[in-house]
Amino acid sequence: MTFYHYLDTVAGRLLLMSDGDRITGMHWVVFKDAPKPTSEWVQDDTPFVELTRQLQEYFSGGRNRFELQYSMKGTAFQEEVWNELEKIPFGKTTTYGVIAAKIGRPRAVRAVGTAVGHNPMSIIVPCHRVLATSGGLGGYAGGLGGKRALLNIENIKI
Hints:
Structural class: alpha/beta
Number of strands: 6
Radius of gyration: 15 Å
Largest sheet: 4 strands, mixed
């Protein structure tokens, strides 16, 4: 069973998803590939009480890491990229090229960008900390305004 809840934040609106035990998704609703609730999903904020609390602390500047049970499913390549995203420290950035090199595929920068863009656990798995090689913002599933808001929370100046 899939539970869901919408959460409005300073960076945009999120669709939160859970299987009842773990968080299974945090998607920006503005993202063209964001999941859409079906009639089989259950709208209920109960599975998201702790997530919502930790997100509120993050947005207010009082939290720099999340302590939640979550599960992400993707291709082997996507999961390899997402594992690298989890290693990016609060307040720091990296680039798509650096991630490609770290996974041993230095020529796969565009594929890394696509995998980053389909990160199913926005904010918790910090894809907002990934910049273009030029140092620019690059893209972001939550829109560039949302990315700027998250970077500002972490005192990252671009």
